[in-house]
Amino acid sequence: MTRKKYERDTYHDEYTSDSSTTSEEPEEIDVDTAIKIIDNRWKHWGDTSVGTWADSVDLYEFLVERQPKLFRYNHRHLLLPREGDMVADLHELVKYLCDDLNIPSTISKVSQVVYHILSCRNKYCVIYRDDTHWTKSWSRKLREMERSF
């Protein structure tokens, strides 16, 4: 009897081990739950010019499916004249969403998502043109072509 008890105690530790000590890995969140989480945070932006053109499905794609590049994006040419504070609010929102979805919120990831949100809006809206925007050089070329005719 002693021998059997000894074998069970030493050789079958995998059956008696404590399973409550698991590693602290973040759980995977399914797509529907992730979109509901994003929709909850994004509803504040729904009535703004940004929220009209980007929805929670777009944000899910920007957050999860697109990989960030290793540089910070310049948002200046994507903004309308009085939207400086809005970019800071969008950065904060994206950080919260990354935390909620268990995504690492690196500077390049947050910056990229904000860039894509503003780009999505600017595809459909008339935007302020400064010297860095692509329409400035494009309109200059059109004027030069008109003069040549």
Describe the fold and architecture.
With 149 residues, the chain is an all-alpha fold. It has a domain at 28-131. It is 60% helix and 0% strand. It has eight helices and no strands. The chain has helices at 2-11, 13-16, 31-42, 49-53, 56-65, 84-100, 107-122, 134-148. The radius of gyration is 25 Å and the shape is elongated. It starts with a helix and ends with a helix. The model is unreliable at 18-23 (pLDDT under 50).
Radius of gyration: 25 Å
Largest sheet descriptor: none
Strand content: under 5%
- What string, H for helix and E for strand, traces the elements in order? HHHHHHHH
Number of helices: 8
The shape, in one word, is: elongated
Percent range of helical residues? 55-70%
| Secondary structure tally: strands | 0
Low-confidence segments, given as residue ranges, are 18-23
The overall pLDDT average reads 77
Instruction: Report how far the terminal alpha carbons are from each other.
Output: 106 Å
The secondary-structure class comes to mainly alpha
